[in-house]
Amino acid sequence: MKTRLGFIATITAFLLVCGVKVFSADPPDWNLLFDECPDNQCGAPPSGGIGGGGAGGGPLIVSYTWGPLFSVQEDIDADGYNDEVDNCIFIPNDPSENDDGDAFGNACDHCPQLATEDNIDSDGDGLGDACDPDRDGDGVANAVDTCPEVMNAGQLEFPSQDDPDNDGLGNVCDADDDNDGIPDLLDNCITDENPNQENSDYYLDGDIAGDMCDDDYDNDGLDEAHNGIPGVDRCPNLQSSENGDADGDGIGDPCDNCPYVANPDQADTDQNGKGDICDG
Fold first, then answer.
1. Which of 72, 89, 118, 232 lies at 20 to 30 Å from 37 by C-alpha?
2. What's the predicted TM-score (pTM) here?
C-alpha cells in the first residue's frame, strides 16, 4: 500500500511540475505535456491525405499507455497498426502481407519476392538494388555494366573512352584509369600509362602533368606536338608568349638562332648561340 501511495505521489508531483491540473475537473491536454515532435522536426503531414490528392494530410494517431513503463504509440500512416509493429510505417498496409518474410511489408518492399535487409533502391525506380537488373539506372544491365553502381551511360557509345585500360571498370568507378599502378588521386597522367611518373618540367610554376600527357612542356599556354597530334608552339622548350616565325623555317623567333635567315636544322658548330648560316 505504501508503495502504491508513493507511486501516486511521485506521478502527481511530476504532473504538477509540468503544469498539469491534476485535481481539475477539466482533463489535461496530453499533447501539451508530451511532445512527440520536439522543435517541430516531424514536419507537416503529407498533402492529399492517406491516398494523395486534395488538401489536408492524413491523421496522426497518438495514444498513451500507462503501466510499469510509459510509452507513446504512434500510427503515422493511420492504418490501425502502431509503428512499433507496422512493417510499412508510411504506407497503410496489413503487416501480415509480407511474401518474402523480411522486415518490409509488400506495400513498401522494393523486392517483395526477395528477402533483403536494407530495402535500398539506389536509382529510385521502385526496384530494390537486390532485384534490380540495372541498379544505377543508366540503361545498361548490371551484367555488362562497367560501373554497375555508378551511372555511365556513355559506355556503349564510347567504349574506348569509358574503359581505356580495358580492365572491365569504367573510368567513373575505376580508381586507376590507366592501370599503371598509380591511383588516379596521385597519378600525374590519369589516362596515360606512366608508372615512373616522369615530369621533366616539374620545376615550372603550375606544372603537374607528366611527360606522357603534357601537351605544353614549357607552360606558356601553347601546345606542342604530342602523341602524333600537331602542336602550335614553335618554341616547345622555351616559355614565351611570342610565337612568330619571321624567316618561315618552322622555328619560333624567340628560340631561333638565326631568326631572319631560314635554318630549320639550327646548326651551330661553335655553339655560340648563333646559327652557322648567319654567324659572320
1. 118
2. 0.45
Which band of pLDDT confidence, cut at 50, 70 and 90, is reported for residue 160? low
Question: Rounded to an integer, what distance in angstroms lies between the CA atom of residue 28 and that of residue 26?
Answer: 6
Domain end among 102, 123, 144: 123
- Contact of 262 with 244, CB cutoff 8 Å: no
Q: Is residue 110 part of a domain?
A: yes
CA distances, 119 to each of 106, 109, 141, 270 (Å): 11, 7, 20, 79
Phi-psi domain of 60 (left: phi exceeds 0; alpha: psi -120 through 50; beta: other)? beta
- Looking at the structure of the chain, the number of domains it has is 2
Give how far Cα 177 sits from Cα of 163, 173, 180, 227, Å.
7, 9, 8, 18
Residue 191 inside a domain? The answer is no
C-alpha 266 chain-centroid distance: 54
pLDDT, tens only, 53-91: 444 444 545 555 555 555 557 888 888 898 888 999 999
Q: Which three cell numbers stand for residue 266?
A: 639550327
